[in-house]
Amino acid sequence: MILVFCELKEGKIRKASLEALSEARRLTSDPVGALFVGASTAGAEEAAAYGADFILKAENPALAAYSSDLYARTLAQAVKTKGATILLGAATPMGKDVLPRVAARLDAGYAAEVTGLSLKDGKLQAERPVYACKAFATVDFPSAIQVVSTRPNVFTATPNAKAGTVETLAVEATDFKAVVKEILAKAGGKQDLTEADVIVSGGRGMKDGENFKILEALAEALGGVVGASRAAVDAGWGIPHSAQVGQTGKVVSPTLYIACGISGAIQHVAGMSGSKVIVAINKDPEAPIFKLATYGIVGDLFEIVPALTQAIKASK
Amino acid sequence: MKILVALKQVPDTETKIKVAADGKSLDPADVKWITSPYDEYAMEEAMRIKEAKGAEVIAISVGEDKAKDMLRNPGLALGADSAVLLKATSPEDPLTVAKALAAYAEGKGFDLILFGNKAFGADHGAVGPMVAELLGMAQATLVTKLELGEGTFKAEREGDGGTEVVEGTLPAVITAQRGLNEPRYAGLKGIMAAKKKTIEEVEASVAAPALVVSALTLPAARPEGRKLEGEGAVQALVALLRDEAKVL
Ligand SMILES: Cc1cc2nc3c(=O)[nH]c(=O)nc-3n(C[C@H](O)[C@H](O)[C@H](O)COP(=O)(O)OP(=O)(O)OC[C@H]3O[C@@H](n4cnc5c(N)ncnc54)[C@H](O)[C@@H]3O)c2cc1C
Ligand SMILES: Nc1ncnc2c1ncn2[C@@H]1O[C@H](COP(=O)(O)O)[C@@H](O)[C@H]1O
User: Fold this and answer.
1) How many domains does chain A have?
2) pLDDT digits 0-9 by tens, B179-196
3) Are residues A133 and A255 both part of a single domain?
4) Are both A11 and A66 inside the same structural domain?
5) Which has the least CB within 10 A, A23, A126, B153, B184?
6) Shortest distance, CA B197 to any CA of chain A (angstroms)
């Protein structure tokens, strides 16, 4: 049996969680359960449409704010209660925080940010990029229980209606050692970079933070979000580190990645080489980013980006 | 205050990756080893706490003999009071590493155990949270700001679309994200002093792995892209994105 830890955001299941759930469904005809943890789990029923045979709700007022240790105990309790041998979850900030803890509690092998999954004799086998995406590792799990986090935007969320019988889990532990007290500077409804379908990134070639406005306009025309290279973040232009793509930033796999004034250093490429379509705009025809780009335009980004925004708006 | 800092040696990011003859491990020939960059933030944070409040800092690594270079610098050279090498053939399973570290740390009264948020190359981001669970400690991962109180901590972490403030009790595991601090380099004096110190070597307690790498492969090269130039390049791009790539 596979359990999938699902996260809700404003009453809806996160896309990355639906991807993990769909992948579990694709892997097995054995029971698949969607696990929800929180003070309230309203909205969880949607999991039935994405392949959940049952929906397991671990509700308790003590779970209102996120606590690594309490959530880990609750997830482990769910795995044990249901006798699941595989636990999947999306590699979101919460998933990456809690899943390794759950694995340690269950004496289970854990692999992070996997991009491929299969079942071999009932056991999970995973594929994941390593060494800055310069290689892929196939990993096997000698442990009885297997835990993985799936990289957002790699697996597809596919509707597949199942019973979705709702079950509840009485949460055993309610004490915790650390908890999220508040959330600061919540970027107004902006999508997380790792879950975005389209990313328009700017590098040192943008020359100034003000100029990122032209990237925002392009991103808006495409329904995407803005990212940056480390050089742009470090330049003191007011670009937050949370927008950085690369080895010391976010690893992203959007459908479309547009790199503007970014040379394509290996540490940047490590964060975006999994993108399906890559567009590079750079005035240097020798820039390494062109080796990677599906399409490249050689020229001045300050002319090309606004023209591209216009052309895309016109094509719609 | 007693602080343990976990350091890992990893291939330099510029390293050309070659697969060894076994088809599942990295060919170590020509690899230049560095301290995993996130671990440098962890080490720096330990030094700042030591300077501000006073602390005994121990740097630790699970690995082979060559890891001693890193335990010396940045470890001892930056100001760690001592360094420990838990000897093992570098385990690739984060749980094996976590168990070795937890077995060492158990009962030694550490208030803080600092980690990098993930080890460059392996990228699991798992050892820190696993040690926290094995030792029943509080945790905050991806931390960009850390404040210590009396037996408590307050950390800012990179959460979903915002900065999360995590409050908890010590002892705690903290994993460092870029932004936590700006790591310093060791000065000559520190480097010389580190040479005279001995690194404690202990056989690691190595558990059977829960994760094994059974194959390492190089990705297929991306097909050479199309370069567009001059007049009409923008229109051509839009057409390609719409009709060929079908992403518009
Ligand atoms: C340990 C380590 C970790 C790192 N982690 C990251 C990371 O996570 N992310 C990351 O991005 N980097 C990272 N780096 C830094 C990386 O090595 C590069 O320095 C960085 O990516 C360069 O950013 P850039 O491409 O924006 O700048 P540059 O390399 O300076 O490139 C700027 C580009 O803009 C082009 N350009 C200039 N003006 C124009 C114009 N008007 N029109 C069109 N094109 C123009 C230029 O031709 C050039 O190609 C890391 C480095 C190290 C050592
Ligand atoms: N072999 C090791 N020895 C000491 N610390 C390690 C080792 N492997 C990982 N770590 C620590 O755990 C962090 C996360 O590693 P990982 O879970 O492998 O991404 C690293 O940044 C180090 O602080």
Assistant:
1) 2
2) 999 999 999 999 999 999
3) no
4) yes
5) B184
6) 32
